[in-house]
Amino acid sequence: MLRLDAHQHYWSIERGDYGWITPELPVLYRDFLPGDLAPALKKHELDGSIVVQAAPTLAETDFLLKLSENEPSVKGVVAWLDLADPDCRLHYERFEKHPKLVGFRVMIQEMEDANAVLEPAFVEALTYFAGKGTPVDLLLTSDQLEPAAELIAKVPGLHAVIDHIAKPNIRDRVLEPWKSQLSRIAAHPNIYCKLSGMVTEADHRSWRPDDFKAYIRHALDAFGPRRVMFGSDWPVCLLAASYDEVVNVLEEALPDGWTAGDRDRLYGLNAKEFYRI
Question: At 267, which CATH number?
Answer without folding.
Answer: 3.20.20.140
